[in-house]
Amino acid sequence: MILGDRDLKYYIEKKRIVIEPFDNEIIRENGVDLRLGSQVARLRRTSMTLDSSHPPEDLSPYYSIEESDEILIAPGEVVLLTSLEYLRLPEDIMAFVELRSSFARLGLLMPPTIIDAGFEGNVTLEVHGSAFPVLLRRGQRFAHIIFARTLSPVESPYRGRYQGQRGVTLPRLRLPGEPGKTFSNPPGDKPTM
Hints:
Shape: globular
Order of helices and strands: HEEEEEEHEEEEEE
CATH topology of the domain at 5-45 and 64-152: Deoxyuridine 5'-Triphosphate Nucleotidohydrolase, Chain A
Largest sheet: 8 strands, antiparallel
Radius of gyration: 17 Å
CATH architecture of the domain at 5-45 and 64-152: Distorted Sandwich
Structural class: mainly beta
Number of helices: 2
Strand content: 35-45%
Oligomer: single chain
């Protein structure tokens, strides 16, 4: 069942779905708009191969992270952005994240993202640049979340590598034979909310 605006207001009021910071303006007919945070991770163009089955501890040759209230996305550039909102979902609510159509009409692309039941954290958004530079600003309504209620609470709520993430979060790749060890942000780059 997709949650409409009345359902969302009820779930948010009862703190079953937590969205911080919250503003009534982000509730839409059948979902919630996510606003942009101020952090961006830019994928660097490099000829260095990243072996995903043997990831390096330091991802800085592949990404740069910056903080700004204005984010310029160059043509064809791939960036990771973060939501301003920090979400907490119960064990019977999951969500679909899509780019708002106004930004898709500018030529920006964002692969669809699933937020699993039980997830908590900022949402990291992968965005592909347009045919021309596009300037984004912190606080803009950029993505749209559609919440769906599962028929029953999930047996295994999300407790994965991205649980509790704050700010833009790089891929957390696991090293073979080290199930608990992951690598993500370059040393010294500590995402903040």
